[in-house]
Queue: 4 jobs
Job 1
Amino acid sequence: MACEEIRELIDGYEDRELDLVSSLSVERHMQVCDDCLQAHQNLQALRSLMHDESLYFRPSSALRKHIRSSLRDEVKVERRLPVASWGWLAAAASVALVAIATLTIVQRPKGPSAEDLIAQEVVSNHVRSLMEPHHAVDVPSSDQHTVKPWFNGKLDFSPPVENPADQEFPLVGGRLDYLGGRSVAALVYQRHQHYINLFVWPSNDAPEMAEKSARRQGYNLIHWDQSGMEYWAISDLNEAELRQFAEIIQNRLHVRSETADWPSHNSA
């Protein structure tokens, strides 16, 4: 089946609405098509985020008490008013319902941001690399001068590659990966028995973003922009050690950038 046909079936596959033959066709296709597999994983990530309780408004106890009190007061007034006042009560109740609905909509948090969706993809790709050892690295090497040129012709940018082995974060290798709708570089490092994936791709034209950290599904993530590149580091390392790794990479990139910009002078 072609990718277009598979994309139309992915929703039904995720909802278990397909027959056995169609389900098997989708599964076989995703085993050999990274783009359709990524589309399925994006759908899973989105649905996982939509189950986050923070996306749903839950009224405070004070608001619930206020509504109950208002309803009790209206019942008391209703018992005292003549039948002719029913029209006024209906109008007042309609206004109250509109006000409550408006308050709920205004206070309801927005859906997941683009950064949240990328973070979920980062987690999914990291987990997949751990579950599929043969996919962890496409170029296994601790030599940055072997890993960096390996990406030539495979990406539309040249990712910076550092090897802080002297600080106990040795380079293991690199691979091609797919994030946010584009191909990216994934650099793999190791700290004792823990693996670190560092995803790299060109950032947009916005000003450099300060470092941000997060924790998703038991993994620590650190995200920053530097020298025209966007970086996402993820590992099951504790936050302090992953932050140490990020700072080492940032410092080395800074030194490399300053060295590249330093003017050369020819001797007379």
Job 2
Amino acid sequence: MGRRLDYKDHRRELDENRYVYAVVSRRARGLSIGVNLNPDKACNFDCPYCQVDRTTPGGPTKVEVPDLAAELEDLLRRAAADLWTTPPFDTVAPELRRVADVAFAGDGEPTTPPEFPAAARAAREARDRLAPGIPLRLLTNATLLHKDRVRAALAEFDELWCKLDAGTEAYFHVVDGTRLPFQRILDNLLLVARERPIVIQSLFLALDGIGPSDAEIGAWVRRLGEIVARGGSIDHVQVYTVARTPSDPRCGPLDAARLEAIAASARDAGFTAAVYA
């Protein structure tokens, strides 16, 4: 049986490509053309809910930007022609048969490789030539947004989707699996939000059957408020949960009612928030 493209299949695989893949995204609401700058699976987070299997080795660390650009150009050209008649794209639900974005995401933190700025420029050039109406997005954990080389490349992107999964230091370390200080994330979110509106993407999960407490959600909402109070701009907040098999079997999804309650807390604080169950 061939591959079926739907929300539950986010494998970074397409033909013989190394960097460019395609998935059906519940948050983008259509086909997302992914750019994976981390085929080596390098990431400075180790989120228990991540679907990437880091027990098996990844690919080369160096990003070959010309190869990446060629792969992206090929898929964008196909998208303008007969994409939906060829496998696996012919399995996409009819209502989702649109290219929703080009998104830097993948098997790690996309701002990590030194080639990130050159890759961003190459993707922007390809998108501008071949699909100018499709947004170019960066999905990031915000850990490196203070670096000059990263900040200089942010202008290539139409939208920045930035992770904020917690409201407290302790919970941040649990759900994002890193020793990096939580304050770095908060400082970096404020840094970029003062320059342009950002999207906050927040994944909430059940760990051993237990989700985040009301106190944790309250702290998370206060963090959002602090960004705005200090001069930042948040376009909207995405509230979602585990949709695919996580690397840690202790992780599971929250139910839709709990996600709606979390989003309602953000709305009560004045934010636009959407749920993706």
Job 3
Amino acid sequence: MKDKKLDTLLFSTIGVAVMFVIVVAINLIASAMNTRVDLTENKVYTLSPGTKAILGKIDAPVEVRFYYSQSQVRIPEQIKTHAKHVEDLLAEFRQYSHGNLEIKKLDPQPDSEAEDLANLDGVDGQVYEAGGDKIYLGIAISQDPQKVALPALPPNRERLLEYDLARALSQVLSTNKPVVGVMTPLPVFGMKMPPQMRMQMGGQNQEPWVFLSELKRDFEVKQVQMDADKIDDDIKVLLVIHPKEIKDTAQYAIDQFIMRGGKLIACLDPMSLADVNRQNPMMPMPGGASNLDKLLKAWGLTFETTKVVADMNSARKLTVRQGAQPEIVPTLLFVTDTGISKDDVVANQIDEVLLPFAGVFTGTPASGLKQTVLLKTSKNSQLVEPFMAQMSPSKIVDDFKSADTSYALAVRLEGKFKTAFPDGKPEAKSEDKDKDDKKDEKKPEDKGKDTLKETKTDNAVMLIGDTDWLSDQFSVQVQNFFGQKIVQPRNGNLPLTQNIVEQFAGDQNLIGVRSRGTLNRPFTVVKEMQAQANARFQQEIGKLQKEADEANQKLSELQGKKEGNQRFVMSKEQQEEIEKFKKKRADANKHLKLVRRDLAKDIESLELRTKVINIAGMPFLVAAAGIALALVRKQKTKAQ
């Protein structure tokens, strides 16, 4: 018996020792090979096909200088971990570059040659904690005559690290940047305020929108005037944002640009928050709608300019006014996986897009065109008035009636496009007619001869039913990181914009890299359950709200009645009626509060159950499996 116990103990000890040796050996081999196993669902820590394609294009030596103050005494642990991640990622880049990527690691000590070289490369030392030393953590990539620097690699951009490196490498390898034209009346390029206005209103100059600054890193960006009668031939992609009151002549210019093979990205809007009506500076209101009606009609589509879409499944609780309680805002659409086309290369890794007060596209594409819906609402949606959507989100929620329709928010059209102006260039408006007549005095029968009627090959157009999604307010968070401007994406708006432009500009290698920057995991099932809970209470809430409104109206009528010269004294009947409706109003408001409280409790209970299941579910399953295994072993032992 003792020998048996001794054998069991001996074999157990040897088994543990053998396992220990195997684990250590595997770690040593993997470390030497710089191999990692990525167990994340979306392979966040695996090089994307786009990055591998860029690395595969390197046919001549490229030098990467990695500056890191590794011998510094006081380095925050977060920086050490991040620097190790950068070094590991560079090693993976080298593996896929067929030996053409040479990586040099330099330690810029104070007053050293490495520090001088870092400064020449444009890499700056940063102070990462109060009272700390200046630490270098940056990269310079060069291949004569090109050189691109990443001056700092802050930890809060770690999930964008692969993209930042891949883009810098792509910039070094490319010789000519594609030209992207931007046509818009909005202050996308920034706006300088007159000194007198800055003093009176306390305003500041507006900087260019972040998305535009990001595009300038990869493309040559050219501003196109809203009244342009021709789009320059060197422009490859035209980005039209909020073409409010656009002239037919400008639509004709866009039409002919497409006929010549240019690609169009158009952001339209039924209510643009960025287009603020400045007639009353004390109460600025959103601007009017924008459309490309002539072009869309030729393509078989219609854009709804008089309504915005509300989607209860995409809504969230937000604080609309300062000091107020958070409330559901169904017209600020947080479009998640269920509304994003994951089959499309530009969006397959985008997890969330925010579209405020968006419009929808309807219709059937014209013959020869294929439509791909990139973004859409859930079926629990409804078209509502823009003014009411902005002023009273709670009213939209109370009166909500689902149209049981999934609306298209962003679509791509592909195929051979036919001109929207078969009769030639349209007549200019009266104020421009004389000017244009002097330029072009052709006979009526010759007017359409210079108009291109159809694209020679397949082309593509992207249509998006919102403009505010591009603004900084809804796409990024800008922070001051010890004097350096750091941009952190709030959602997938910025990555999606860049993906679309890059796809249309012809370079698709970066598309799968960038969208790794924001990978929220929204609880889509929970949101659907919340929407169902809302729906159960909406009918009762609407009924009680109607009773309260009717009581208020009746009270106003009664209190407004006068009897002869009686201005302040009411009759007994009037007072009784008023008291009656006051009680009715109080009862209705009381019941309304109770119902809304029950709704809040229902949603909170749902959230609590979900948290308990998510947190306790896996430990419970592991414990149950362990108990079951122990019972099985016990039964086997008894049988022996």
Job 4
Amino acid sequence: MRSAKISLLLAAVVLFGLSFTSALAQGFGTVVGTVSDSSGSVIPGAKITVTEEGTQASRSVVANEQGYFVVPALHPSTYSVSAAAPGFAVFSQKNVILLADQSLTLDVKMTIGQATQTITVDTNALQVDTSTSTLSQVVEEKRIVDLPLNGRNPVSLALLVPGTIQAPANNADQGQYKTIPVAITVSANGSRANQTGFNLDGSSNNDIYTNVNQPFPFPDALQEFSVQTSNYSARYGGQLGSCGKRYLKVRDQFDPRRSF
């Protein structure tokens, strides 16, 4: 069976990604970094391989002349990253956790040695985004499962993010316009509640009358979501609020995002 993926981004634009094939899935992350030796000199042409630990699916790229590499469109998951270059021992780092819509910087330090040698680093990569200016926070599966969730509406957890508050609904979630579960009117950094956009599978998921969200996936299907409150990518534009992204893995991907 195909696995279903849903990704949600929330800040004044809330974006959702639900997919049944990897080509359509939203909420992908990216691993970037620079390959260098112990002296700090860059190593061009190094082969970087990123392997998802759960499925053993792998992707490989080659570092450019500045030793820089980018591995895009990766599912939120746990990975191992290896690097190989002539004259250097193989670098390997396990338990690299990539979150929904995250750009993770992972610099690789290689040491001189035989290709048959492997230097393994078994620690979690520092979760600091140094490649974009986006302000975001991920609400991970543990909080989705453990925290009280009134009405089983996962979008209400977006209110955990600094800068977001519950705004007056002004009857946007009542009567014939009511969504199931109830609409969440989120104000991000002072924006109006109807300035939040929602996308599902790359298409708008806003109510065309009230501009609040249409129905969300249930929390049982959610793995995590990223709430972006400032400086998110231009592809999430069209609204003035915030945006977030979630990952459903049936339990996998859900994604709300903010736009200006």
